[in-house]
TrEMBL record, chain B:
The gene is nuoD. It is found in: Cell membrane. This is NADH-quinone oxidoreductase subunit D. NDH-1 shuttles electrons from NADH, via FMN and iron-sulfur (Fe-S) centers, to quinones in the respiratory chain. The immediate electron acceptor for the enzyme in this species is believed to be a menaquinone. Couples the redox reaction to proton translocation (for every two electrons transferred, four hydrogen ions are translocated across the cytoplasmic membrane), and thus conserves the redox energy in a proton gradient. HAMAP family: NDH1_NuoD.
Length: 225, 437
């Protein structure tokens, strides 16, 4: 593996690869070309230390005096800053982000979700992208909750635009946003069972009318990687 | 008519209209709940509105969506990063190039190759996006005219849009859902003759826009249906997360192309049109002016593509990311170029393996998450993309402006007349493919 084959990523740490197996029944990675050896392996950045660079330090300075205990960690990666916030303090943090003169994140771009089944005790994440028109800045706020107790306080009172976005995240991930005015399904039918964007959602195969054959579910199909 | 616990229910399903009118006239009920959609010509696809009426005044408007949910975001988790482009292009089907660009910018950010995308590819992206903005605004205008009962703007709008779609077909091979923008660049360079075709469009279009303006700008019927209708001021827009022409019609010159430039927009000269009427007419004026600005950008991009950027690469040079073959037009349509086929089939085994691995397995993207946003015709279109280090996206979420902007329906419709609901929804310009994804 020569370094000039890698896209612009530091090679300081090379943890275990994410390897999917099964090409043509091979027991290893099935890689006979050596192409698989060109993998860029880098674990996701879990937290960053000061100075964060860019305007991120200023945002953190304005946030930390009041909410230092609420911020679990700060991640600066790919010129974006993510504040991981404790769910109990989320509404206060969001209100401060919106109202403080040094922050003024007036525009929220909604709620996205993510399911990390491997992060025990913190499986479900709600991700908020905020934009400040006053200062022309962006931040990301991320909140996690354990799967058995999937409650996150609703932020509709701070950003009314979260109404539909929280409904969507509830619909797809099953995160219950406490205090939402009407948390119902939005994309799936009202009587749908399960939350389709979760990683443990069963996908199901498609029966094919050919000698009882069946197209396997997407996550069980032969994979080249 | 059937009697239920909530009241009388009248079905409108192809029966004798006179009979229905008679029974409704006899009723003493003042409050009327009507269901509009999901199959209704003026609801832009499969939008459903549940309206509570008091006479002709709307007292409550509820929006129901989800009829076009296709699970694109979930599907992408089982395809390679490059294949993802063919999915996202189908979200907001009137603005496919924007979906592709937002997604590819996020993937490029994750790969850390944003600065290595060739300039020619960026200029082509800008040009295609602006052409797409024109075609999208023309549909907004055309359907709007039709919904208000004027068929001429509809004919004009679709006729003009056809010119843009012809250009798309000429350049990419497809009129819609082109999957043209790819991580690292664009799928194919401009074919011979494309520059002339676009130049011709630039010559014709200003007059066509002027024609539409002559037809509508001061048309008394049109202005009465649009002025002071569906008022939503800046505070309302901010709270509801509204972006795009609706926000600019409320007076805020917020345009990502200017405020947070991408794809080299900072090097183009154009204005951000605004109005401060906060109404449907203001949104119309903003869209018209945006089309004129787009023409300026296309002209500048075309000058660069024929001048300093002529003959440059359109895909990143990194062979481990860039699609191995260039597309070429053959007798049976657009496909892999014959040169490339000859190379991998008869002269280089390694090239064949490389092609096979890159196309079937795809490249790996370092773990992490990224958000990238573009100014689509409807507002901020954002892609939140998460990678676990594999060859497939771990999670892709699209912040589609239609989805967010539709939340403004109650704010703009309640308290108004039922006829104005049509103008209000049309001025939001929602595309249900983008709303439901």
């Amino acid at each position: 593996m020569s370094s000039d084959n890698l896209p612009g990523v530091p090679v300081e740490e090379t943890p275990e690869p994410v390897a999917r197996t099964g090409m043509f029944g091979a027991s290893g990675t099935g890689d006979t070309s050596g192409y698989g050896g060109l993998v860029v392996r880098r674990a996701p950045r879990l937290s960053s230390a000061r100075p964060y660079g860019s305007y991120f330090d200023e945002v953190a300075d304005a946030l930390e005096p009041a909410f230092g205990d609420a911020i679990e960690r700060v991640v600066v990666d790919r010129d974006e800053v993510t504040f991981h916030v404790a769910r109990e303090r989320l509404v206060d943090v969001m209100r401060h982000l919106r109202d403080d003169a040094a922050l003024r994140f007036e525009l929220s771009l909604g709620v996205s979700g993510a399911h990390y089944p491997d992060e025990t005790g913190n499986e479900l994440h709600a991700v908020y992208h905020l934009c400040s028109i006053t200062h022309n800045r962006r931040v990301r706020v991320e909140v996690g909750c354990p799967d058995p107790d999937r409650h996150i306080p609703s932020t509709v009172s701070v950003y009314p635009t979260h109404d539909w976005h929280e409904r969507e995240t509830y619909d797809f991930f099953g995160i219950i946003f406490d205090g939402h005015p009407a948390l119902t399904r939005i994309e799936m039918p009202d009587d749908w069972e399960g939350h389709p964007q979760r990683k443990d959602y069963p996908l199901g195969g498609i029966p094919v009318e050919y000698r009882g054959a069946e197209t396997p579910a997407p996550d069980q199909r032969r994979s080249y990687a | 008519m059937t009697q239920t616990t909530e009241g009388k229910v009248y079905d409108v399903a192809g029966q004798d209209w006179d009979e229905l009118v008679e029974t409704v006239t006899e009723s003493s009920e003042e409050r009327l709940v009507i269901n509009m959609g999901p199959q209704h010509p003026s609801t832009h696809g499969v939008l459903r509105l549940v309206l509570t009426l008091d006479g002709e005044t709307v007292t409550e408007a509820r929006t129901v969506i989800g009829y076009l949910h296709t699970g694109i975001e979930k599907n992408m988790e089982f395809r390679t990063w490059t294949q993802g482009v063919t999915f996202v292009t189908r979200m907001d089907y009137l603005a496919p190039i924007f979906n592709e660009t937002a997604y590819c910018m996020a993937v490029e950010k994750l790969l850390g190759i944003t600065d290595r995308v060739p300039e020619r590819a960026q200029a082509i992206r800008v040009m295609m996006m602006e052409l797409n903005r024109i075609s999208s605004h023309l549909v907004a205008l055309a359907t709007f005219g039709m919904e208000l009962g004027a068929t001429t703007p509809m004919i004009y709008g679709f006729r003009e849009r056809e010119m843009v779609l012809d250009i798309f077909e000429y350049v990419t091979g497809l009129r819609m859902n082109m999957a043209y923008v790819r991580p690292g660049g664009v799928s194919v360079d401009l074919p011979a003759g494309a520059v002339d075709k676009i130049g011709e469009f630039l010559k014709v279009m200003p007059k066509r826009i002027k024609d539409i303006r002559k037809l509508l700008d001061a048309n008394p019927v049109y202005t009465r249906r649009t002025k002071d209708v569906a008022y939503l001021d800046l505070t309302g827009c901010m709270a509801l997360g509204i972006t795009g022409p609706m926000l600019r019609a409320a007076g805020l010159p917020w345009d990502l192309r200017k405020s947070q430039p991408y794809c080299g927009y900072e090097t183009y000269e154009f204005d951000v049109p605004t109005e401060n009427t906060c109404d449907v007419y203001g949104r119309y004026l903003v869209r018209m002016a945006e089309m004129e600005e787009s023409l300026k950008i296309i002209e500048q991009a075309l000058d660069r593509l024929t001048g300093p950027l002529k003959g440059g690469p359109v895909m990143i040079e990194d062979k481990k990311i860039g699609w191995p073959s260039q597309l070429a037009l053959g007798p049976d349509g657009l496909g892999n170029s014959p040169d490339h086929i000859a190379h991998i089939m008869s002269s280089s085994m390694e090239a064949l393996i490389h092609h096979f691995k890159l196309v079937t397995e795809g490249f790996r993207v370092p773990a992490g998450q990224a958000y990238s946003a573009v100014e689509s015709p409807r507002g901020e279109l954002g892609a939140h993309v998460v990678s676990d280090g594999g060859t497939r996206p771990y999670r892709v979420h699209f912040r589609d402006p239609s989805f967010t902007n539709l939340q403004a329906v109650p704010a703009t419709c309640e308290g108004g007349m039922i006829a104005d609901v049509i103008s209000a929804v049309a001025s939001i310009d929602p595309v249900m493919g983008g709303v439901d994804r």
